[in-house]
């Protein structure tokens, strides 16, 4: 696996948004098996300048957070390794890579972390290295070739433009599993609700309790 950016380079990218921000190794609530390079919570305990606010809105470093749905789905995978063991799995919109890493830890034959953002790819690579597991990086979902046994995605449905992928996932792989804290009543004939999980974004953004309830969906056979 190639590592597109060193930790120092990724921190430098983060400094373009928040000048004093740093990534630190972080243990996650309810997920002691896994750690990630995430934004130091101390960087959130101050007022942001107008320029920093603009940068955060224009270039949010989403890969420096572990979002609640990703944490919940990673926990579910580690608790249910038979769901991914021996499979070629693609994690769509991988972000920090937490779900792809959980799949690798649970015995996936190949775990593909797919994200368009080169900084997210770097975060995935560094986080995989931190946890001692192999990941395959992919920037373009449509360029991934070969058989995919399972497509997984966390917190991608909030963007209505991503709804087009729901049907494509069903055509591309025998199974797809989605976790989402914002969409709790997905209306799509190809998907059914499997469970409700608990997740928390980290560093803690003080999200309402409702956003810590994560809906888990799976494709209908």
Entry summary:
Pfam families: PrmA. The chain is an alpha/beta fold.
List SSEs in N-to-C order: HEEHHEHEHEEHEEE
Largest sheet: 7 strands, mixed
Helix content: 25-40%
Give the quaternary arrangement of the chains.
single chain
Q: Give the CA-based shape.
A: globular
Q: Which range does the strand content fall in?
A: 15-25%
Strand order of the main beta sheet, please? 5-4-3-6-7-9-8
Rg, please? 17 Å
- Tally of individual helices: 6
The overall pLDDT, averaged over residues, is 92
Q: Give the terminus-to-terminus CA distance.
A: 34 Å
Structural class comes to alpha/beta
Strand runs, count: 9
Structure explained in plain terms:
This protein has helices at residues 7-15, 50-58, 68-79, 98-105, 118-131, 165-172; strands spanning 23-28, 31-39, 88-92, 110-114, 136-138, 150-154, 175-180, 191-198, 213-219. With 221 residues, the protein is α/β, with parallel strands linked by helices. The strands form two sheets. A seven-stranded mixed beta sheet has the order 5-4-3-6-7-9-8, with helices on both faces. It has a two-stranded antiparallel ribbon with strand order 1-2. Helix 3 (68-79) runs parallel beside helix 4. The longest helix is centred in the middle third of the chain and has 14 residues, at 118-131.
